[in-house]
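Hi R.,

As promised on Friday, here is the backbone we talked about, encoded as structure tokens. Could you run it through your design pipeline when you get a chance and send me back a sequence?
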């Protein structure tokens, strides 16, 4: 199994040691919340979401954020969260800034806006690592996942085209690890096709990132959870295939360095942490986010916000010890956003 470079142990260890030295090695950044290219059945991003937030970050604010982070030692930007990064009007300016300042970017993307080889090459040349949405190669089923219920078909085809363009542009050829991963959400619609996606990953030096379904937002509405949930036999079978892929290890999604180093800024400039732990990812428990707003980059400096995050996290791990101890019993089958809670808590305790 090839590892995804931004989630490699070397990057994680370096981020932890840089944080101990008082640096800010990682920024967990939400770009626009808007996603017009798809309407996934399990996702809370809808074409209208970003439009409701006209106060999303301007280039001036984003530039100021990145410049301040750079002064604090920024090495990696991780964009996850809602929305499609390639739909953010500041995306390419941000990529140029990061490239010029030797800062790497890892982004989740649906790939729908990677429409030609020039775009794929531009991403590759800027050193952008990509986790491409790829639940299944069954086009009809993937179209349903991507929201065909709204009457729009053909989205899966665009994602498969992006996959091919990225490979043609030179992605997944690095000997040390891979700059390309596939994000696979195991659901009843995708399950039969996942072994084929893993086979493709194995053949093409792509990391297969299997991330469990979050039981939040859209998933909890109507019968979605019932429709998408898996039978235990299906989970066991997929776990066996995933273990064979990860052999000699057991498959578990790696810890994303941005969950415990650096800090999280959302699409309107708020600095957020998980309320109980003070960790940066609000989705790591795969349930409805419960956040504490630490401040906003519009009114406070990066340095001040980061100091507040570190202080909040350290205090939370003491004050909420009993609840956090309970997380040590949470071990997912494949891992969720940011990794496996048990491993995240253990590592954070060591690194605080
Ligand atoms: C929210 S999307 C944002 C980035 C981009 N639009 C994309 O689709 O990759 C980030 C990742 O979260 C995953 N995702 C969305 N809703 C989810 C859910 N309810 N449970 C688990 N993963 C989910 C997507 O499959 C995607 O890989
Ligand atoms: S998972 Fe990504 S592509 Fe799908 S609706 Fe959400 S933001 Fe859009």
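Update: got your reply. Pasting your designed sequence below so it's all in one thread:
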């Amino acid at each position: 199994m090839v590892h995804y470079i931004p989630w490699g142990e070397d990057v994680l260890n370096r981020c932890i040691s840089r944080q101990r030295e008082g640096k800010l090695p990682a920024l967990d950044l939400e770009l626009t919340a808007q996603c017009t290219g798809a309407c996934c059945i399990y996702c809370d991003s809808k074409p209208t979401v970003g439009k409701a937030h006209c106060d999303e970050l301007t280039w001036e604010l984003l530039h100021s954020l990145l410049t301040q982070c750079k002064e604090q030692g920024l090495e990696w930007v991780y964009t996850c969260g809602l929305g499609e990064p390639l739909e953010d009007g500041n995306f390419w300016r941000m990529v140029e800034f990061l490239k010029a300042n030797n800062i790497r970017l890892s982004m989740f993307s649906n790939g729908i806006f990677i429409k030609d080889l020039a775009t794929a090459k531009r991403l590759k040349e800027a050193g952008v690592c990509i986790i491409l949405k790829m639940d299944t190669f069954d086009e009809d089923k993937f179209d349903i996942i991507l929201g065909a219920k709204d009457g729009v078909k053909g989205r899966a085809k665009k994602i498969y085209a992006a996959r091919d363009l990225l490979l043609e542009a030179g992605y997944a050829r690095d000997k040390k690890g891979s700059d390309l991963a596939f994000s696979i959400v195991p659901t009843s619609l995708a399950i039969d096709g996942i072994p084929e996606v893993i086979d493709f990953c194995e053949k093409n030096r792509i990391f297969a990132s299997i991330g469990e379904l979050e039981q939040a937002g859209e998933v909890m509405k109507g019968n979605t959870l019932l429709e998408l949930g898996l039978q235990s036999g299906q989970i066991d079978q997929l776990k066996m295939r995933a273990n064979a892929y990860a052999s000699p290890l057991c498959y578990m999604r790696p810890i994303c360095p941005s969950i415990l180093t650096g800090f999280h800024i959302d699409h309107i400039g708020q600095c957020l942490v998980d309320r109980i732990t003070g960790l940066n990812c609000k989705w790591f428990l795969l349930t409805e986010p419960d956040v504490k707003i630490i401040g906003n980059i519009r009114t406070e400096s990066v340095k001040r916000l980061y100091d507040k995050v570190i202080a909040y996290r350290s205090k939370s791990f003491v004050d909420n010890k009993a609840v956090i101890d309970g997380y040590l019993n949470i071990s997912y089958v494949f891992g969720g956003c940011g990794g496996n809670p048990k491993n995240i808590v253990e590592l954070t305790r060591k690194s605080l």
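One thing I noticed while checking it: The pocket of iron/sulfur cluster (ligand 2) is lined by residues 35, 38-40, 43, 45, 82-84, 110, 133 (CB under 6 Å).

Thanks again,
M.
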